[in-house]
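Annotated sample (chain length 274).
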Amino acid sequence: MSRKLTQPNPWQRLRQFTAARIALGRAGNSQTTETVLAFGLAHAQARDAVHLPLARADIEQALAAAGFASVPAHSAAADRQHYLRRPDLGRRLDDDSRARLAQARPVEAPDVVFVIADGLSALAAGRHGVPLLLAARARLPGWSVGPVVVAEQARVALGDEAGHLLGARQVVMLIGERPGLSSPDSLGIYLTHAPRPGRSDAERNCISNVRPEGLPYAQAADKLAFLLRGALALGRSGVDLKDDSGEVALPPSPSDIAPDAAPDAAPDALPASE
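Output written by the structure step:
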């Protein structure tokens, strides 16, 4: 019986440029043991990221140290099992959170409210939420930032309700994305102008794969600041708002634009889903 020998792949040197699974080599007609074990580890890390609880206390402590006020919130999904099986529950706040946010509403409407949420990777929110928020704040001089909402069992649309209850002109959701086999801690950014329950995905802008190995904080914050200013000038976000930040001058700040009408009062009843 002939012994199988591991065959190196001549493309091996290209692996330094990507985390994608290329140039894996082979042992006869099979993958190498190292490759199989690495795949199993990546799969386990992705599953763990989905089920890891949000380190809310650590995030709130980091926010306080950076000078941010924060408000805890929870979706209508009671636990992770309900969250994964009922996406509609993750899109709206529970009653206690709704009351807490209404009470925390600033007297003057903030230009932007940020929400740090677990989504499908609490690991991403815990690692990247506060550093990205700090980078964004540095790029928004003159902007008023409302209390930061730290939300558990949350989907993207929950940010619309949170921003509405806090009277925000715009809301930015920083949420853990669905883990990949090479990125269990990827953070997504979702911007909605004039947030309110019932906004559709077409009415928001997304910046994806925020992490040091993907889109760095500084570059993500640059894009976010450009989109926030653009949405303010345009009066809406979503499909009509394009990220052409490399081609045009920065849009104006809030002080350069006439204030919008005061946000509507918080609704008494909310739709079961978006």
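Annotation: The helical segments are 33-51, 56-65, 80-85, 87-90, 95-103, 122-138, 158-165, 217-234.
Annotation: The longest strand covers residues 170-176.
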